[in-house]
Amino acid sequence: MIPSVLPTYNRAPLTFVKGEGTWLTEADGRRFLDFGAGIAVNALGHAHPALAAALSEQAHTLWHVSNLYHIPQQQALADKLVEHSFADTVFFTNSGTESCELAVKMARKYFYDKGHPEKIEIITFEGAFHGRSSAGMAATGSEKISKGFGPALPGFVQVPLGDLDGVTNAITENTAAIMIEPIQGEGGIRVVPDAELKALRQICDENGLLLIFDEIQCGIGRTGKLFTHEWAGVTPDIMMSAKGIGGGFPLGAVLATEEAASGMTVGTHGSTYGGNPLGCAVGNAVIEQVATPAFLEGVRRKGGLLRQKLEGLVADHPDVFEEVRGAGLLLGLKCKVANTDVVSAGFDNQIITVLAADNVVRLLPPLNVSEDEIAQALIRLEKTAAQVESTLAAV
Fold this sequence. Notes:
seven-stranded mixed β-sheet, alpha/beta, four-stranded mixed β-sheet, 17 strands, single chain
């Protein structure tokens, strides 16, 4: 008999009932150090006082009115994002998947309005993950997530990550945009070099294409800048955001220049829940915390500390780990053993990590993780590695 919750997830044997900061409490009372943060969602950890206060105050005032009316909290958050980014305008969504849908529509509508309806193709990259909607699956190009769901939505061309010649060769009269994650998260914490992002910007400029950045996982302070592309000194025309922007409340956004968004006029897109007072009240509280120089400097400092300690972990356990990947507090351990074994052993040692492709284990702590908690995480990861080694020796 099928369970009442559709069984599309391979869930870990854990049931968390309470969260506080970087810690999760299991139903049996055990406390886990959370270095998964809900897959990079809980940017400020669990039950952050400022976020809880913002949500509670809004919940006692006004929940939802729809986008048929002006929403002050939405306007305030849009103003903050425009102030702190390349963008001139923002559309709010509920998720990263929804943000991807609009980014694709926006790029295609731009060229349609310019008199080039043939320009519908978007170049994406192997190893990417852009969600599980029809457009997201097609943009991702992975048989693993698209098999069985019928013909792929046309208009997407994948090239190998890092193959700039491949990008150039893939451009045709039908090409509208290039879409890329500055750091592939689900794809295995694969960092796109700054020089490559600059080259993609140049390719777009020379060929009259739009550049779309997917910062759903790597944005909102996770690498020590508010947005990861800032490290490269380039800007996109359109950017997708979600995960950390709501600090745990479902919220996403598409940021764009005035030019790129010019085709999105009244009636061309909509969202019943996107940008509602509850979500934007929390989003405002997140940005007020994260988008400060002191906070971002703290992310950079703690990211450097965590990476240094992880490099030592790799050196001490060469049969388990191969290398450290990533930037800031978006880090990964490339494993020599099955990454599932490492994550599972981590549960035994009460630390939460997250699987990624390419046999990588992701470490995505809240951005306000303390140095003491980083030290505690390394103790637990050392025990985890030793446990995996012991299992290997017994085979």
